């Protein structure tokens, strides 16, 4: 089985990538399996910029093909925030629950129809010997009035999918992996890189 390195420390992402890549005959390793203390400063202004930075940094350590994900939530009524700051929205100490509470507070007086949001995932693939590729996947939804469900991670409990009448955290991992921004980005990568899959 071919192995791919995923340049992430986020175990929620790792679990999703493990399932998504297993369907395609790959096994994955993440930064949590690598014996180096690597910290990458995510200072780009776009998801794509941060994803490339993560992937290219890790290629330097491993010499393998590396996939990195930079992702987050864009809320229309907040002019696209939290965006690239999604992980650190409520403070530098990453805390999903505090992020969700802050988001619900910011949207306290915003009506249902104005709560449109999208998840965005930039996937960068860096190679030891050719230029980095980037694709973007999205998933459209709305911010719920209160958190519901306990699957997934991050903003999943407050991300409401209108056609499913459920939050992302109320879906099983299989259901999320059919429609998520991460799954959509990976489908694009697969279309553009048939020979690689
Ligand atoms: O509800 C969610 N469902 C998702 O599917 C999802 N994908 C991303 N996010 C949010 O966006 C941040 C990413 O920031 P991010 O790309 O910098 O990742 P991270 O810092 O957690 O790990 P790393 O990959 O950088 O090591 C995460 O922490 C989450 O808050 C999600 N929330
Ligand atoms: Mg990060």
UniProtKB/TrEMBL annotation:
Pfam family, one: Ham1p_like
Classification via SUPFAM superfamilies: ITPase-like (SSF52972)
Active-site residues (renumbered): 70 (proton acceptor)
Sorted UniProt keywords: Hydrolase, Magnesium, Metal-binding, Nucleotide metabolism, Nucleotide-binding
Reactions the enzyme catalyzes: dITP + H2O = dIMP + diphosphate + H(+); XTP + H2O = XMP + diphosphate + H(+); ITP + H2O = IMP + diphosphate + H(+)
Gene Ontology CC: cytosol
E.C. code: 3.6.1.66
Binding note for cofactor: Binds 1 Mg(2+) ion per subunit.
Gene3D superfamilies from the UniProt entry: 3.90.950.10
A molecular function (GO) term: ITP diphosphatase activity
Gene Ontology terms: biological process: nucleotide metabolic process; purine nucleoside triphosphate catabolic process
Domain of life, source organism: Bacteria
Keyword Ubl conjugation: no
Listed CDD domains: HAM1
Chain residues that bind substrate: 8-13, 71, 153-156, 176, 181-182
Residues annotated to bind Mg(2+): 70
Transmembrane segment boundaries: none
InterPro entries: dITP/XTP_pyrophosphatase, ITPase-like_fam, RdgB/HAM1
Cofactor(s), by name: Mg(2+)
Keyword Hydrolase listed: yes
Protein family membership: Belongs to the HAM1 NTPase family.
UniProt-listed PANTHER family: INOSINE TRIPHOSPHATE PYROPHOSPHATASE (PTHR11067:SF9), INOSINE TRIPHOSPHATE PYROPHOSPHATASE/HAM1 PROTEIN (PTHR11067)
Quaternary organization: Homodimer.
Protein purpose: Pyrophosphatase that catalyzes the hydrolysis of nucleoside triphosphates to their monophosphate derivatives, with a high preference for the non-canonical purine nucleotides XTP (xanthosine triphosphate), dITP (deoxyinosine triphosphate) and ITP. Seems to function as a house-cleaning enzyme that removes non-canonical purine nucleotides from the nucleotide pool, thus preventing their incorporation into DNA/RNA and avoiding chromosomal lesions.
Name used for this protein in its record: dITP/XTP pyrophosphatase
Lineage: Bacteria, Bacillati, Bacillota, Bacilli, Bacillales
